[in-house]
Amino acid sequence: MIKSTLLQAIQAGATELKKYFNGTFTIASKATLNDLVTEADHASEKAIFSVIQNNHPDHFILSEETGAMPTASSTKWIIDPIDGTINFANGIPICCVSIGVEQEGKMILGAVYNPFMNEMFIAERGKGATLNDQKIQVSNKSDLLSSCLVTGFPYQYLDTENGPLQIFEKLIRKAIPVRRLGSAALDLCWTAAGRFDGFYEHKLQAWDSAAGFLIVEEAGGKVTDLKGNPYSPYQPGIIATNGKIHTSLQDVINGGSL
Ligand code: IPD
Ligand code: CA
Ligand code: CA
User: What is the model's pTM?
Assistant: First the structure.
């Protein structure tokens, strides 16, 4: 029942993305100039809420644009109505809807859908991860120097030791390819599918990673915070890899040299 609601909800959100994409829609800035929210984010969120609330009116919802709608239920839906909003607003088809379902504090289900590539990633705890119903697995690479990585940068420059630019510089100086797609949820799913060997980012919110981190884990990968501790989507840092390059990447992120 929860899984069918999830699939219905994610399709409902994606229908709104397709409706607005490359069309005219309002765009507003949030906390910083380039932290955007569009009319499509709100429409997607509304369509998703309607499906969830029709099927499970008592469930807890946490969604980027509306915030937390707490209830007494131990089932919580964690929603990013558009992940990759800047891409969306510029007509770049690298964006998606992301929904994770947490029960008793554990992520049990996650789906990420990019309607422009027609790629649906789903994971169920203990049952593996799929892309369009085909099982996916993380890559096999064990050498960081020959890995293909992906990262993202926060909307506000993070001027800290071992910050995003320092890590990026270290990797780029060794000519390691580090991509920047602009959607953390897709970064995670593409790592799960073996397109990337690893992903890291310094400052995410729960809705960016709730579904994607489970998808990586269920595809056989490893996900931790920046220090290597077990991952929680309620803290900012993330390292998600195929497992084999995890320690090497973690060392570099914590000040180690390459
Ligand atoms: C953003 C994207 C981006 C990441 C940012 C997120 P949004 O989410 O996932 O890749 O670098 O940290 O905020 O704003 O497009 O939903
Ligand atoms: Ca996001
Ligand atoms: Ca978003």
Answer: 0.98
